[in-house]
Amino acid sequence: MRALPRILVLLLIFQSFLGGRASATWVWVEGEQASSTNIGKHPWYYGQVKKDQLSGGDFITHFDASKPGEADYRFNAPSAGTYTLWLRANPVQASMRYSLNEAPSVRVDLSSNQTGVINIAANNAPDLRFIAWCEVGKVVLKAGANRITFTMDSANSNHGAIDCFVFTNEPFTPSGVLKPDQLAAAAKETAAANQGWIPWAPPADDFKASPIDLRRLNEKFAGENGFIQARGEQFVHAGNGQPVRFWAVNGPPFELNGKDLQRSARVLAKYGVNLARLHGGLFDRKTGVLNPDTVKHKVEMIEAMKAEGIYTHLSIYFPLWLAPENGAGWREGYNGKRNPFALLYFEPELQKLYRSWWQAILTAKTSSGVALIDEPALMGVELVNEDSLFFWTFNYANVPDPQMRKLEKFFGDWASKKYGSIPNALAAWKGRSHARDDEKEGRLGFPPLYDIFTRKTPRDQDTAAFLMETQMKFYADTVKFLRGLGYKGLITASNWTTANNDILGPLEKYSYMPGDFIDHHGYVDANHKGGEAGWSIREGHTFSNFSALRFDSETSGGPKVFSNPVMDPMYNRRPSMISEIAWNRPSRYRGEAPLFEAAYGALQDTDGIVHFAFDTDRWQVKPGFFMQPWTLMAPSQMGQFPAAALIYRQGLIKTGELVADLPLKLDDALALKGAKMVQRANLDGILPSEVQQVALKA
Q1: pLDDT tens digits along 152-172
Q2: How would DSSP label each residue in 486-547?
Q3: Which of 25, 304, 313, 555 lies 20 to 30 Å (CA to CA) from residue 589?
């Protein structure tokens, strides 16, 4: 193998002194300067990429299923010592290890402190062709000659790519292809080209003493003062009875572990966060089989949060996380593409499987040997995320025929119990029939939700009552199951909206009553339109700039909209939480969110505000295929957290007087008479576009 040319190495080393910092040392090595005997270049993987995005205009790649790829580098270090190794490589489904100076190989964590992810595919396809910086970690170099060998051994054709890497003993925040001595000049250039703006490229936080470090607001460890309980309209610490509000985030990033996870928890505590909603499944997407490693990682995340005085709220089920393959029982009729909307509320096998997931996570033990059912740092659990028998996703197109027949039979049994028989029920309904009715099989069909909340016939009223009771029974049975396990924390049923909140909203909220508190979601989505706009921001998309603080319409010239996701009515004197809230990018008014949420949340005494989403603890957009609309780590969002958290958590704005108390009788709600006050949906756009369109039209 040939060595990296000495003249190039010397140039790389001397560049560190040209920046005017004589004490700093770094060595930058280009990936394509390796000596290797077994690199397999694939024309698609290597050739069809944007090489102008690469350091030196090139990189080294390997794509060969028959053998791992190996890249060997020789370089000189000006002095012996400890350096930080940063690597710019392909992080997508990639696996890599390295050996330094003939030492045993070490696995590279390509997700560690990952930053600057870009798509380098020439056609922008969201496939394997990405590049990103990752912090490999501390290494010890010898003065003079050193050698490092990278081995690419990914499951998919051993693929891998290296653009460049750098050893540095000075603080380094990667920025594309810029070397350490180019960062300051590039920042000045950017500032000069953008008058009135300043570059935002702060170094990694060293957590030195700071007046905006709010770690002091949290307990020494979450649960120090006992479990969180619901007493009347508030959350309180069981140990001392003191009320608590949660300034919270959805996060931290699931890919973090070890020191990176601990650092993330410290960042959250610094910015005033005292609750994290861990929102993610525990199971295989196609079969529902439990993933034990995911359970272990959730426990690790709970412990990391606990150490910084941050409580955890667990959310483990969302129909979009499952796409069952066809099979017996609860999977019959699915095809690996459809999501099981509404199925959990009535299908016994899925309910049994679902409760086994809860048993697995709640009986899992922390490193100190405490099961999560006995861990006060676990503030609460959420039974179902964004699903309902009263939302548009409940229909014959989404629920396969074999599954809907089960629910129709349950409805037939319900009607027979109420009226004595199905014929009697049909008579009471004045003969209003449905094409799916089958007296012989004891089944009764379901009219579209639109018909239910517009016609309001006796059959519509009974259908709504059956759906409400079915949904409520699932929540009540699950609460009973969790309490039977010995779980001591709080429980909330769900957080969703309905096809018509005027009429069906009260029934949805009433079905949540088996839980301890009420939850909802809401977004200001900037009227964002375009392909996959629910989760990404791409070229060609359109959006509107409008202020929710001024109650602007989403469309220019439209009437004022006196509703936004911060508005949080109280139901049945229960504590309340907004477990997902965001002003989505790319709106220019995102900056109004944190202080508005804090002030309005304090005025109405909301008990928890959970921002979506803390997907990185660095000042950057979440790494991924496309820019996404929710990232909190922006100056306009997280930069305001210390002030907002103080206002909200310490009650610097006092709770206002009760404006209205509007009682609603259950009989009237079941008669589909509707509510006097209606909570708007404020949809987030993540559901399929056809569902969104139906909901918005209604």
Answers
A1: 999 999 999 999 999 999 888
A2: T--SEEE------S-TTTTHHHHHHHTTTSSSEEEEEEE-TT-BSTTTTT-B-TT-B-----
A3: 313
